[in-house]
Amino acid sequence: MQEDQRVFDVAIVGGGIGGTMLGTVLARHGVRVLLLEGSGHPRFAIGESTVPETTFGLRVLARRYDVPELEHLATNAALRRHVSSNCGVKRNFSFVYHRDGEPTRPDECTQYPTWGPPLGPDSHYFRQDVDAYMFHVAVSYGVTAYTHTMVDDVKFEEDGATLVTRDRGSFRASYVVDAGGMRAMLPERLGLRQEPPYRTRSRTIFTHMVDVRPFDAVSPPREQHRMPSPFSQGTLHHMFQGGWLWVIPFDNQSTSTSELCSVGLNLDLDRYPRPDDLSAEEEFWQHVGRFPSVARQFERARAVRPYVSTDRTQFASQKVVGDRWCLLPHASDFVDPLFSSGLAVTVMALNALGHRLIDAVRQDDFDTARFAYLDHWTKRMFRFYDDLVSCSYIAFDDFDLWNAWNRVWTLTTLYGTNAQNQAAVTYEKTHDPACFDVLEMPPYRGLQGMDNPWVERMFDQSRDAVLAYRAGELTKEKTIARIYEVLGESGLVPAVWGTLDPDNRCPSGVFTLWPLMKILLWGKYRSPRHVRGSYFTGGARLVGKEAVQAYTSELRTGSSLVHQTVRDMWLNWNRDWARRPAPRK
């Protein structure tokens, strides 16, 4: 290999979804990118459920950096059409409460729908297909990528770094990004790992299965539970004291070609220490057997891959950036799979890191101070999610407590998602990528509205009430009352939502077109001063425009397939090969 083929601007260690998205963004803007992946594609990975803030963030990445392929991951229709028919649809987050030995009660469930078309719905990523797609996209944009290439060492010098691989020799790069996940190389090489400073203490058992029954087939009927969306068409969370179990089906839409379902059991380490006398499989089924409704859902289920059992899920690093290097979020820290936060934090980090690296390469200036923003906000987001998740484990003590605490999360999600949308709305008006700079300014920085002082105050006061309950300083009833009081005082609750009504267990309603328009109208004309002008501005026009585009695209796709079928009944020759896009330069 020639020497100039071993010298790059940026080297990315890890070829998963985060590393390949970053590589694509950088290569699109002329950065010479090396990507080194220790295994290959396709491969198993978890982190399979998106959230609205993730998918809106992907839209921002796609438009800010002019990489339309990233937007193919943002809605289920685009994902199904462009990436993989093995992915599932996510129309909701459903939470069902369980007691030992009892069938679930119809009025002990909550639901938060995802956005309907054209801005949604969200998806269940079959990661081996999605990750392979993004790897191929990165290569098509000019990333130099090697699979089955282990990096044994990285040696940092003043002007760059040397990456020593096991089988392909050494490479030089001006900057190194570690996208290697929990077993990332740089945290170990640089001694960055530390005892997790997180209140959450949980562990996980997970696998993929076939023949997991739709929960709608075994749950109380809809007339009794009154949820607006089928449980099986979203990410289902079975909750119980001290734990929860995810059910993420990939076979839950009519066009799916998958038979698989991702399942994972998450347990509070202090309540459920890891047993020495049970295998992961035995422990999984032991907990499933505790809850009759869950047992019915899994009565025919069979695992298709080995069960994986973790020790404590949480890990942390002392810092995210250093001289000539940085860690992507999943290489730095992790809290818990609850609320599918991993991909959301990753997308935010890519948005902030992309333009910094592009500018650093162009200016040949990799001063660590340039990347300090990433260090501060990545760590701050993990602290937020630790608060959110640890208080959720506490709230699993009792359904009424969960029913109150759950509303805090739905509200922070609304404002975090709308912050991303505000930037997209401005971009559609101006087509100026500089409009995305607002996502690093108050009140839009970070995720879940955490940089908005009104959202932050509401969240902190609610969190403190739950922690006081855990400490025995507040009764359950007073904790619940305090949360509703804080929500009401915040002024953040849309008047068209039922957030302050405990009997409304889907307090946000749904995000189909007309309810969505009502939220936008409330925000623009009837919301408090601290909401109006910063959120819900101009979105109606964008939603209408994209609704027409989504309908037209689906119609065109269907018509094209019909045309091809009829054509191929009569003709052998075609020019479909000529319609493929030309290679990118």
Give me the Rg, rounded.
Answer: 24 Å
The pLDDT mean sits at 94
Instruction: State the share of residues found in helices, binned by percent.
Output: 40-55%
Beta-strand percentage range = 15-25%
Sheet with the most strands, sense and barrel status:
8 strands, mixed
Low-confidence stretches: none
Number of helices: 17
Q: Give the CA-based shape.
A: globular
Structural class comes to: alpha+beta
Report how far the terminal alpha carbons are from each other.
Answer: 22 Å
Total strand count, please? 20
General description of the model:
Helix content is 40%, strand content 17%. It has 585 residues and is of the alpha+beta class. The strands form 4 sheets. Strands 1, 2, 7, 8, 9, 10, 19 and 20 form an 8-stranded mixed beta sheet that branches. α11 (341-363) packs antiparallel against α12 (372-395). The chain is globular.
What is the topology?
Layout: E1 7-13, H1 17-28, E2 33-36, H2 52-64, H3 68-71, H4 76-82, E3 88-90, E4 92-97, E5 109-113, E6 122-124, H5 127-140, E7 144-146, E8 151-157, E9 160-165, E10 170-178, H6 185-189, E11 193-194, E12 202-210, H7 222-225, E13 235-240, E14 243-249, E15 260-268, H8 280-288, H9 292-297, E16 302-303, E17 308-309, E18 316-317, E19 321-322, E20 325-327, H10 329-332, H11 341-363, H12 372-395, H13 399-430, H14 453-470, H15 476-490, H16 513-526, H17 539-570
Parallel strand pairs: 1-2, 1-10, 2-7, 4-13, 10-20
Antiparallel strand pairs: 3-6, 4-5, 8-9, 9-10, 11-18, 12-15, 12-16, 12-17, 13-14, 14-15, 19-20
